[in-house]
Amino acid sequence: MWPLIEAEGLIYIYPDGHPALQGISLRIHREEKIALVGPNGAGKSTLLLVLSGLLRPTAGILRVEGEEIRNWDPRRLRAKSGLVFQDPDDQLFSPTVFDDVAFGLIYRGLPESEVRERVYQALRAVGMAWAASRISHHLSVGEKKRVAIATVLALQPELMLLDEPTAGLDPRGRRELIGLLRDLPQAMVVATHDMRLVAELFPRVVIMDQGRIVTDGPAEEILRDEALLEAHGLEPP
Ligand code: ADP
Asked: Which CATH code fits 31-52+77-205+214-231?
């Protein structure tokens, strides 16, 4: 069985010359839940942007179900994966919650009845159907995060990419979000500093530092290795 998405030797250099990814190789399988950890500036967000098809890698190979993406046509990647940004205000810009979740579906040209059905399905999955006609910007941070997740869920990606999903949440919002992530069946790559979240939810941990993957393995081994965690600015859960 091919990995859902496979990266080989990915390099990304920002236009100002900063090398953010310096040769990333990673296989993501169906329904696999991976925590991406490492100090600030390690390249985690950049990797999520590349895996979601929003940034074009400077070099390296990306394969979707074994098939290489050539001549930078990111459509196959975008059909498989969806990115939830760290700041929900970057994801929510429509007048109402319904419109925010519907936006990507309308853009894909789906008929109105299907748009409606998918919007409510996604909002129910995150426990936000009650807020469909609310103004997104009036919601709490935790609610906004859940709506931002719904905007991606509605597109039915097989891989969810989430950047710091628990950042800025109060304890209750955090618990609700962990419960939600636990229940989602999709494959997931989650960039986070929240090591307790990692311990609770993720069987596999990838540590990045300075644009490289320094460790990739079972969470129970990695989270026990205090010296390794400390060497990369991380704390045991
Ligand atoms: P992380 O998510 O692990 O904190 P990032 O992917 O945000 O890391 O950043 C990786 C590196 O790329 C950092 O050194 C950061 O300063 C740099 N970087 C991020 N965005 C840009 C940008 N738009 N232009 C230039 N350098 C950037």
From this structure: 3.40.50.300
